[in-house]
Model the fold of this input.
Amino acid sequence: MYTPRPEDKFTFGMWTYSNPGRDPFGDTTRAVPNLEFHCRAAGKLAELGAYGVNLHDNDLVPITATPAERDQIVATYRKALNDAGLKVPMATTNMFSHAVFKDGAFTAADPTVRAYALRKAMEGIDLGMELDAKIYVFWGGREGTEVDAGKDLVESVKRYRDAFNFLIGYVKDQGYNIKFALEAKPNEPRGQIFLPTTGAMLGFIQTLDDPDFVGVNPEFAHEQMAGLSFPHAVAQALDAGKLFHIDLNDQAPGRYDQDLRFASVNYKDAFTLVKLLEDNGYSGSKHFDAHAYRTEDEEGVWQFCAGNMRNYLILKEKVAQFNADAEIQALVAELQADVDGVAGLMTYTPDNASALRARSFDIEALGAKGRKLELLDQLTGDLLLGVR
Done:
């Protein structure tokens, strides 16, 4: 029951399983990956039941590679993917590692940097299409400030918009079958990052030339870092029809970006998230953007990969149990019961407005009525803890 299969559409970022264990205070604890490792990893991920691999341009092709070197690397890796039966559902561009992006990419104050960022993004999109990606994610890790006086903040948002409008035009002119997904984060590595939450991204998308072309790629840890609820952000994206892709991991609130194994910390939030995805028929990739602990060797990395997928499938089973539990469902139905017959009055018509004005409401009785949320929460906890 907890064995992943390709139809589950579990994917891993190339940067996740290949993370060498480096952190701001310590050097690597695992080997720095090379092409041979990535080709071997494709077979290992397929063996574990994964559906695919997602990648930044420079995860695969060094930023200094010549065109001939680039073509040879891509051909070699594509063969490894085909041999393993893995897909590349999503690709993205690294515009945060190199020093050229130290003050931003699309929003950099220097116009030459902005121009280079657009060219790099076009080349990255070309690579994504070569690998058959259907979603292209943009995470603006350096799009922000430490010194607000160094940028016109309004102009920065305009530059962000101009960049996406440019790239939308490029994709359409090329006839590429791909859509964009924007990923929010409140801070780190910049002190403040523009458009820091999924809600901010959803608002920004509506200002673009073609809002239908662009959705969001919310990440569990990024919303948690801001002290927000990831399930609530995902629910807003689902409601807007904008959940084009999703990054699954875990995060202790108030910490640095930890990228922990999915459902390793916040079991209840992870359960709510899986319930949202499963109950609403989300059919896209379930991408694990997480890292194995720095303590692990390569064997531990593959155990980490397997654990992410296993935890999702365990919670998927718990969702089915929740939805089938007669007592729990009776409580949920009671919470929403239309005992006064008013549900049909809350779609605006002049008659409904008149009916609501004429209706009397016993707000004292409504305020005194218990909602049984303590019981519902306990029953949910019993189910998650395996005693129900």
In short: The chain has a mean pLDDT of 97. The longest helix spans residues 298-324. The longest strand covers residues 52-56.
